Amino acid sequence: MAASEEVILIAGGAGFIGSHLTARLLDEGRQVIVLDNLQTARPSNLRLLEGRPGFTFVQGDIVDPLPEAVLREAGRIVRIYNLACAASPPQYQVDPEHTMLTNVMGTNHLLRLAEQTGARFLLTSTSEVYGDPEVHPQVEGYRGWVNCTGPRACYDEGKRAAEALTFDYARMKRAQVRVARIFNTYGPQMHPDDGRVVSNLICQALSNRDITIHGDGTQTRSFCYVSDMVDALIRLMESEIDGLEPVNLGNPNELTVSDLAEKVVAMTGSTNRLVYTPLPQDDPRRRRPNIDRAKALLGWEPRVPLADGLAKTCAWFAEELGRVPQRVAA
Amino acid sequence: MAASEEVILIAGGAGFIGSHLTARLLDEGRQVIVLDNLQTARPSNLRLLEGRPGFTFVQGDIVDPLPEAVLREAGRIVRIYNLACAASPPQYQVDPEHTMLTNVMGTNHLLRLAEQTGARFLLTSTSEVYGDPEVHPQVEGYRGWVNCTGPRACYDEGKRAAEALTFDYARMKRAQVRVARIFNTYGPQMHPDDGRVVSNLICQALSNRDITIHGDGTQTRSFCYVSDMVDALIRLMESEIDGLEPVNLGNPNELTVSDLAEKVVAMTGSTNRLVYTPLPQDDPRRRRPNIDRAKALLGWEPRVPLADGLAKTCAWFAEELGRVPQRVAA
After folding, report:
1. Which residues of A are catalytic?
2. Which site among A127, A294, B142, B298 is 20 to 30 Å from A179 CA-CA?
3. Alpha carbons A15 and A85: distance in angstroms, whole number
4. ipTM over 0.90
5. Could B164 and A151 be called an inter-chain contact, meaning their C-beta atoms sit closer than 8 Å?
6. Strands B220-222 and B254-256
7. Closest partner CB to B97 (pick from A100, A146, A168)
8. What are the pLDDT digits (tens) for A10-30?
9. For A220-239, how does the pLDDT look when each residue is reduced to its tens digit (9 = 90+)?
10. Which range of residues forms the domain containing residue B208?
């Protein structure tokens, strides 16, 4: 890359949302360095990016001091997106110590780089900071209902700690920051086995497996298509807000997990059996963002209807799984 | 120390509660290594311990890898108490990044030592994990009302993250752990300038300064005398519980800050002016532990009445400040 060009660093840029964000920024002609430990990234996400003009991949774990290949570009880094952390419970619970350190040490390494370079820093936090919420829909001022002693705490409390660190850098005028609280997001390039509900249901429907629903399926979620989420992240990063408040990003269109399963079954034509399994510990019962702040500050709201997003996602998974049942328009 | 003897490591052992705990364990004939960065410890606390049989001091910061002087004793360490972190808002807010890392990286360094040595680990967490509580008195199952974006978050969220890490080590069977949630504690050897309400009020009453009360003084606290707290910590460490739940430690005797100020004024005979100042951001309105779990598991409850504890504390501060107004029995 030419010495004069500005560079955007994306930690976790080979992951689900990260790879879409990277692709979009490359589309816009930006120079992007992806730093990723490939813990949960799909190799094929990376293959979609490799060789594209402006793209550089550095394998590394943000828990460790930042790699030399990143540091030598420090003078040109103007934006740092932190999307690095396994986000589905079965994945982040494999090594809870690493999950916590990714959020705290990893975020701190990137914040120090932001301080050193003057780059603006965006943390992708999560609706999980609200835990199993008692307030509905969730507004940013709601302080949450998180069990700090349970098996989800490494992620939920790790993200809360990462937010605390990030806002402290802002308060101390050490860095310009933005904090996004991302609600459930779905789309192509999700990991088929990551244990999250959309990918679970679609992959089960497209194969010979039972379709499993945790609990009785009346718990709700609100799903945002990934292209809408990428729009929001870029708008938030580039907005000239003061950055001292987190911003919910997600789709307020709430539905039950049972409803979602029905839509997936209808869309794929699956005849697989529906099986109800016990609800995992601390699983949230309801989840829906209030996005008034994002609308006001960013002029953003989701545009992709669930039916369209699900159709694209089913089509992608069908191809990914090597099957083409009643193919839906991509 | 003889090679065969068991050693107790106390991180933060030169601080207020830490120095009392160290003295008690030395009284019991134990070998104690204090690891402390002397960030907030009073040098005189350390002078009370230095030279006592069984006592070793190592200066070091648990944010960094553990010092060689600790590691070379690893084979004999059987208990690790983590009391290391500035605990008053003015102190822990000076360097919020360091506060967060003390709780997360520091706790993790000690947990790794516990895993390596098989030593039992006790984390001193805090009533601050409940934030500004909506449930009163606070039971351990209450998930708290903590602002993870505010100026107290480096401490509150740091401790919540430290709890999450500690319980993950227990769940993964990497270490035997105990977690104490310590409520307001007072007594001799508090730092005169640490900005906490008991030391503030006594030091102001004993000098020519106005006696300042945050807010209108109707906010409540519950104060535990330090000898009771030390009893509880040792009992918790030595108890054969499964260690998978935190235990509140504190005195459920609740009073308003105004009541406390009146008692201090009466006890010291102060004629200083009472001044009301704005309530700091996120200051909790009520704070009182439910200690049923500690009673049941440890057979413990506080024994020192507030009048006795305050008298001893006033007497100590009077001597410490080089004045002896109406001397109270020590």
Report:
1. 155
2. B142
3. 9
4. yes
5. no
6. antiparallel
7. A168
8. 999 999 999 999 999 999 999
9. 999 999 999 999 999 999 99
10. 187-222+253-286+304-320
